[in-house]
Automatic annotation (TrEMBL):
Key words of the record: Disulfide bond, Oxidoreductase, Redox-active center, Signal
One family name in Pfam for this protein: Thioredoxin_4
Family: Belongs to the thioredoxin family. DsbA subfamily.
Span of the signal peptide: 1-22
Origin species: Staphylococcus borealis
Thioredoxin-like fold domain residues: 36-197
Protein name: DsbA family protein
Cited Gene3D superfamilies: Glutaredoxin
Coiled coil ranges: none
Length: 197
């Protein structure tokens, strides 16, 4: 009987150790459907530090990696700096949905015209002007405006999803950048991004 108890105890210890080892495995980095390197940037259109990344890093990343189809880039709009941040997030999502090849232009233009983060400026009037600047059809512009202003549209749902994703991943500062699941220590320097590219 003691032998059986001893064997059962040993098996229990082995199971506990194996379970602990399985839980300690690193999460696999996100993979794109086409196997490209995945860049995920958590940001907010009102964030002045995100604007620095847009001005100083994104031109190189866009030219050398996005435009050459080497990476997939995703901007997760945290939408947490103020109430109008979420409006900007909805508009960005609508552009991504209706005219995805113009999204980066929209993102660049919003950051280029960024105002004081402590003031409400990411308004429908501002966003409509930025949408009107895009080189797309009038019908696309109307569809983008309709989507981001319509409650429970896909653009609204995606903004809510992005906000939840930000919370779930405990992102409390923006910009935060991950490349294939690895956090970029200093997102303000191109060389820190290219370490993972």
């Amino acid at each position: 009987m003691k032998k059986i108890i001893s064997i059962i105890s040993m098996l229990m210890v082995i199971i506990v150790i194996m379970s602990a080892c399985a839980n300690n495995k690193e999460k696999q980095p996100p993979k794109t459907k086409n196997g490209k390197i995945l860049i995920v940037e958590y940001g907010d259109f009102k964030c002045p530090y995100c604007k620095k990344v847009e001005e100083n890093v994104m031109p190189t990343i866009k030219k050398d990696y996005i435009d050459t189809n080497k990476v997939e880039y995703q901007f997760v709009n945290a939408g947490f700096l103020d109430k109008d941040s979420i409006v900007g997030s909805r508009a960005g999502n609508a552009v991504q949905e209706v005219a995805p090849n113009k999204y980066l232009t929209f993102q660049h233009n919003v950051f280029a015209n960024q105002k004081d983060e402590n003031k409400k400026w990411l308004t429908e009037d501002f966003l409509d002007r930025e949408i009107d600047k895009l080189d797309i059809t009038s019908q696309q512009k109307s569809e983008i405006k309709k989507q981001y202003k319509t409650k429970n549209s896909d653009a609204w749902k995606k903004a809510d999803e992005q906000k939840k994703l930000t919370e779930d991943n405990k992102i409390d500062t923006v910009p935060t950048v991950f490349i294939n699941g690895k956090k970029v220590k200093d997102p303000y320097k191109v060389k820190e991004w290219t370490k993972y590219l």
